[in-house]
Amino acid sequence: xxxxxxxxxxxxxxGLLVFAMGHGVPALASDQAAFExxxxxxxxARKAAAAVGHExxxxxxxxxxxxxxxxxxxxxxxxxxxxxxxxxxxxxVIQAEHEEKVWMDAVLK
Length: 109
Known about the structure:
- The chain is mainly α.
- The protein has helices at 2-21, 27-51, 59-71, 75-106.
């Protein structure tokens, strides 16, 4: 279910951003909006990984650093960092799913 909502979010968010940019929203506001979408997606992925016990070490710091970059109006770097954090969260969930299936192979017999 989480994968479907992430796919939907990735499909809809750029469309909303393009719509907003085409309707007179100042560039800075659209950059801020794009960052907020990326940051929220990163936080959601981080929380999902934490919920299954596989939050990666640097994910939270990446999101914190992304927020600091956005405060300095470096939205391009902030968005890139938030997207990396999102990917780490997604990979943490995938890792948990994989380990749930194969943990018995690691047990001595």
